[in-house]
């Protein structure tokens, strides 16, 4: 006979501990899964968002391009719509400018200030930018409009993150 016999009390204690642990884990695991799920999900498949603009259709006149994508914010998914002003410069290179004014973040428009044609104009405090996004000295913005990174895929324009405009400051 073994010296390590389990008493009825010990057997009940072990059994209840085991069942209790199992039930506790069954209740907690979904909560843990819910808490870390966004962290476990892979990031977006691509950093570039497709637009419906054909690169061949771009001209030297800035065109407003709206594009949307799904944004995951922890457990909340929303559709975000961004805008770019896109044209081809004299070298045929694509220029995609952010519309966010570098003064206080209003939205700039192209060629809407009749007294200063062919410039980007911010109606909030009359900020102005030349066509390449450079801020016009003497107006409130103190830096050029940011530029979007871009790619061409299957003839269509894809836009990525914004970065500081390489043309340098106007004032
Ligand atoms: S926010 Fe654009 S000029 Fe002030």
Automatic annotation (TrEMBL):
<dbReference type="GO" id="GO:0004497">
    <property type="term" value="F:monooxygenase activity"/>
</dbReference>
<keyword id="KW-0479">Metal-binding</keyword>
<dbReference type="InterPro" id="IPR036922">
    <property type="entry name" value="Rieske_2Fe-2S_sf"/>
</dbReference>
<keyword id="KW-0472">Membrane</keyword>
<keyword id="KW-0411">Iron-sulfur</keyword>
<dbReference type="InterPro" id="IPR014349">
    <property type="entry name" value="Rieske_Fe-S_prot"/>
</dbReference>
<keyword id="KW-0813">Transport</keyword>
<protein>
    <recommendedName>
        <fullName>Menaquinol:cytochrome c reductase iron-sulfur subunit</fullName>
    </recommendedName>
</protein>
<keyword id="KW-0001">2Fe-2S</keyword>
<dbReference type="Pfam" id="PF00355">
    <property type="entry name" value="Rieske"/>
</dbReference>
<keyword id="KW-1015">Disulfide bond</keyword>
<keyword id="KW-0812">Transmembrane</keyword>
<keyword id="KW-0249">Electron transport</keyword>
<keyword id="KW-0408">Iron</keyword>
<feature type="domain" description="Rieske">
    <location>
        <begin position="62"/>
        <end position="159"/>
    </location>
</feature>
<comment type="subunit">
    <text>The main subunits of the menaquinol:cytochrome c complex are a Rieske-type iron-sulfur protein (QcrA), a cytochrome b (QcrB) and a cytochrome c (QcrC).</text>
</comment>
<comment type="similarity">
    <text>Belongs to the Rieske iron-sulfur protein family.</text>
</comment>
<dbReference type="GO" id="GO:0016705">
    <property type="term" value="F:oxidoreductase activity, acting on paired donors, with incorporation or reduction of molecular oxygen"/>
</dbReference>
<dbReference type="GO" id="GO:0051537">
    <property type="term" value="F:2 iron, 2 sulfur cluster binding"/>
</dbReference>
<dbReference type="InterPro" id="IPR017941">
    <property type="entry name" value="Rieske_2Fe-2S"/>
</dbReference>
<comment type="function">
    <text>Component of the menaquinol:cytochrome c reductase complex. The Rieske protein is a high potential 2Fe-2S protein.</text>
</comment>
<keyword id="KW-1133">Transmembrane helix</keyword>
<dbReference type="GO" id="GO:0046872">
    <property type="term" value="F:metal ion binding"/>
</dbReference>
<dbReference type="InterPro" id="IPR006311">
    <property type="entry name" value="TAT_signal"/>
</dbReference>
<feature type="transmembrane region" description="Helical">
    <location>
        <begin position="12"/>
        <end position="32"/>
    </location>
</feature>
<keyword id="KW-0560">Oxidoreductase</keyword>
């Amino acid at each position: 006979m073994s010296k390590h016999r389990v008493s009825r009390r010990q057997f009940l204690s072990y059994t209840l501990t085991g069942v209790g642990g199992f039930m506790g884990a069954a209740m907690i695991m979904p909560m843990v899964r819910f808490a870390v799920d966004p962290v476990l999900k892979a990031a977006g498949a691509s950093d570039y968002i497709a637009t419906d603009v054909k690169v061949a259709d771009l001209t030297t006149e800035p065109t407003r391009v709206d594009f949307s994508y799904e944004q995951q914010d922890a457990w909340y998914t929303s559709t975000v719509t961004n805008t770019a002003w896109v044209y081809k410069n004299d070298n045929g290179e694509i220029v995609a400018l952010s519309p966010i004014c570098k003064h206080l973040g209003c939205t700039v428009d192209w060629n809407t200030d009749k007294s200063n044609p062919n410039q980007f104009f911010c109606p909030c405090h009359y900020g102005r930018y030349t066509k390449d996004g450079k801020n016009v000295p003497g107006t409130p913005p103190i830096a050029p409009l940011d530029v979007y990174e871009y790619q061409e895929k299957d003839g269509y324009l894809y836009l990525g993150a914004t970065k500081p405009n390489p043309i340098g400051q106007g004032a």
